[in-house]
Amino acid sequence: MRERPRAGAIATSTFVVDASHTIDFGPPVPPVLSTPSLIWHLEHAAIEALKPFLAPGEISLGIAIDLQHLAPSPVGTSVTCTARIVRAEGTRILFQLDARDGNALIARGIHRRAIASAETFAKRLRQR
Questions:
Q1: How do residues 32-49 score in pLDDT, each as one tens digit?
Q2: Does 1 map to a domain?
Q3: pTM, 2 dp
Q4: How many structural domains compose the chain?
């Protein structure tokens, strides 16, 4: 690590829900933002929050997520995903997550990431 990640460091990811982000239950329910797509954007916010603290050759790996998806977001809705560092314990980082569309909270949860050497991780993948 370049420096220990600071509690309170934050990053966001904003996107507009389109068909590629949705799950379709069929009539009469319109397509809505899927939980996996929401998690993807929340995870990328966490990755961005950690980037300033990583040394060259380091990456962060998602190791756990506990998320409540509280409300649906239809196609065309702008969603902002926020990841805030809560604490760093060695190479393990805990995040508080939330997602909002407009002023409404649509998701909240916690996420854990681990900092690792990109080369070591790639080597492990090649051995699988």
A1: 999 999 999 999 999 999
A2: no
A3: 0.93
A4: 1
